[in-house]
């Protein structure tokens, strides 16, 4: 199995909202490269109440709520995303 790498030189890092305390002892930073987000074709209806956006960044696929793009983002290995999409179609 080949190991994938992602160029993070252009990534913007931010402290996770889950990091606790002023001592910075339990800090985690998260980043995503400047990915192009697009609304999923599986998002339904004209009401836009069930909308997700996806972005492809190297070996990862990110998913977020299009109504709240600054909230949590989920990231999955691209191979797992492909498996997920195949399962949706069955």
Summarize it.
This protein has one helix and six strands. It has one helix at residues 78-89, and strands at 12-15, 29-32, 38-39, 52-57, 60-65, 74-77.
Approximately how much beta-strand content do the residues carry? Answer: 25-35%
Q: What would the average pLDDT be, to the nearest integer?
A: 74
Unreliable spans: none
Count of β-strands:
6
Protein name: DUF397 domain-containing protein
Region (Disordered): 1-23
Pfam family, one: DUF397
Domain DUF397: 35-87
Walk me through what this model shows.
InterPro entries: DUF397. This is DUF397 domain-containing protein. This protein is an alpha+beta fold and about 90 residues long. It has one domain (about 10-90). Helix content is about 15%, strand content about 30%. Strands 3-4-5-6 form a four-stranded antiparallel β-sheet. A two-stranded antiparallel sheet has the order 1-2. A hairpin with a 2-residue loop joins β4 (about 50-55) and β5. The longest helix has 12 residues, at about 80-90. It starts with 11 loop residues before the first strand and ends with a helix. The mean pLDDT is about 75.
Write the layout of secondary structure elements.
Elements: E1 12-15, E2 29-32, E3 38-39, E4 52-57, E5 60-65, E6 74-77, H1 78-89
Antiparallel strand pairs: 1-2, 3-4, 4-5, 5-6
